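Question (not urgent): is this output format expected?
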Amino acid sequence: MNITAQNHDDVSALLTVTIDRSDYKDNVEKQLADYAKKIQIPGFRKGKVPLNLVRKQYEAGIAFDEINKQVSDALNHYINENKLKLMGQPIPQPVENFDHNADQISVTFEVGYEPFFMIDLAKYEVPYYKVEPSEKEISEGVENLQIKFAEEIPRDEIGEDSYVELQISQVVEPDATGEHHHHPKYTHISKDRKTAFDLVKHLKKGESVKISKEKIQSDETLAKELGFSKQETEHFHHDELEITVENIYDLKLPTLDQDFFDKVYKDGNITSEQDLRNIIKYELEGFFRKDSDVHFVNETMEQIIDNENIQLPETFLVKWLMYSDPKIQTEERAKEIFESEKRSLKFQIVQNRLTEDFGIKLENSDVISRAEQMIKNQFAAYGLYNLKDEELQKYALDMLQNRDQAERIASEALMDKLKDIILKKVSKKETSILRDEFLKMVKAKDEFAVPEFDS
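Got this back:
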């Protein structure tokens, strides 16, 4: 058996696998002998079918399968041994006048290679936006601290500024069967959660209202304000939910005096409202820095894609799209799809190149950890912060069952590892910007033309 390569260019080639009849003949003969022992043909007892009759009926199919297996094994071994980085999969060319009794059979495959190039991160200078909080955001930070340490004033009826504690339970039908045990959910709302607040504002303490599961499943805002994730709403076992007002209270905000400062920051360094605002500003800047880092890394990736000579095996990839997806029936359609995916392909290649250059290894634990963080973020958006570890892992593993999602999460886990390297190696052209302006800029750019990652 022999394999030869004929390069079209640096990123595409023909690989030809030549197999001798002697390479597969013995295996074919062995399988024919096994067939003769097992098959039943009218007029012959089991195990007594003449070998020449078995050969006439089955040899061609057995030989074809054996040749296909050996060619495939040899090709995979050649690819691995030579450490070839393929894009797509090898496309077999039709074999004319296939004859399994020929002394030699050659099978040719078209392949596309991932391009090789070097990336010097030090030559890049990318804008880095230092995001600063506005006076309004700092004031909101002060108010949030006041709310955290506020005195609760009990009420029997819900007022405009009231905070309401709710118990939410699934209503079990009288004829329900099964052993489903549903623990009630507890959540707090105020007028900031307008949809949920409007639903209960007419109730007194201890009173309830019922809603259908269809209502909460179709109203994403209501579900979020009541503390339900999308996954939870999809797994209700009963048709109704009962929402009960457990507690109502107003808040008496503390005065911004030394007693309050000492409760919030026990080190005694806060002696005035301005000191408090300064430290909140500092903390918000640290929080916003994560967004700045993410934007900087993604902007760096865009610059690399735009400036490096990343040669793709375009002709091969168009053919591979048509070969791998029967729904793509014309070359024009395949070219359209390729053009729409070209930037994402280059992003993946740049990511692979940097990963290899800096010796970054991606473990299964990294991918699972990334998926768990995504689940945490999703639940946190619904006000849920205390998900048990076993529940978190279950949701993460379920998410990773989807191949496309698993690949995306793995790519983001790699970007997490690359982030610190890019931040260290690439020069920053720093500019201060308010949070609102930063968000408008990101939105205007439709962040991003290439796959982005989150902090």
